[in-house]
Amino acid sequence: MSLIDRTFVFDPVTTKATPFGDGRDHGLIPIVQTPRGTFVSGAGLRSTDNGKTWKAIDGFPDISRQGWRHEMVGLKNGWLLASEILGPGFGGERILYRISYDDGQTWDGVFEYYNPGRAILGRACPRTVQIDDQTDDQTIGVVFYDIDKDQEGGPGVFFLRIPIAKLQP
After folding, report:
1. Cα-based torsion angle of the residue sequence 44, 142, 74, 8 in order, rounded to the nearest 10 degrees
2. Burial of 14 (C-beta count, 10 Å sphere; 0-12/13-18/19+)
3. Which terminus of the chain has a smaller tally of CB atoms within 10 A, N or C?
């Protein structure tokens, strides 16, 4: 868990919290563990030794400047998604995933999932989760908001279902 004042590992069975990896404070930057056991930090760092040491990732998307709006998600197939909000203002103008297909080493994949052709009002705050992972129709779901009163349907919270197959390179 990466919190503003500490980073720790929480065991829900024992309810114990222990310091994570190198013991430093990683702030509100997300950290994801891949199926191979690699840890990838939204600060553009990668660790293959349980967070004890970190190496910079060349070409990592600059999601850490997005404050608490950014997210990073690990899929069961090993791919990693980092939401990137592009454009000026609080909500940018479009939202996309930068994708790593190789355990967080490179981030060449791009999938744009929201582009209204104008500024997104609000902060969008996307949150993604893998759903339907036990079926052949694997999907992710992403929730975000846009408070533009003039958009079709008015302001609101939106939920998109995206087939994982659409994210392929």
Report:
1. 70
2. exposed
3. C
Which three-class secondary structure state does DSSP give residue 151? coil
At residue 9, the 3 state secondary structure works out as: strand
3 state SS of 113: strand
Q: Enter the tokens of residue 77.
A: 């197939």
Q: Which residue has the tokens 């500490």?
A: 6
**Which residue type does 37 have?**
G
pTM of the model: 0.85
Q: Which of 8-12, 22-26, 40-44 has the lowest mean pLDDT?
A: 22-26
Ranges of beta strands (E only) in the chain are: 8-11, 16-19, 31-33, 39-41, 45-47, 55-56, 72-74, 80-86, 94-100, 109-114, 127-131, 139-146, 156-163
Q: Report the alpha-carbon angle 13-6-106, nearest 5.
A: 90
pLDDT over 80 at 4, yes or no: no
**In this structure, what DSSP letter does residue 133 have?**
T
Best CA proximity match to 141, nearest among 150, 132, 149: 132
Tokens of 146: 């846009």
- List, in order, residues 6 or more apart from 149 with CB less than 8 Å away: 155
Closest CA to 19 of 47, 49, 52: 52
Q: What is the pLDDT of residues 91-106, one digit of tens each?
A: 789 999 999 999 999 9
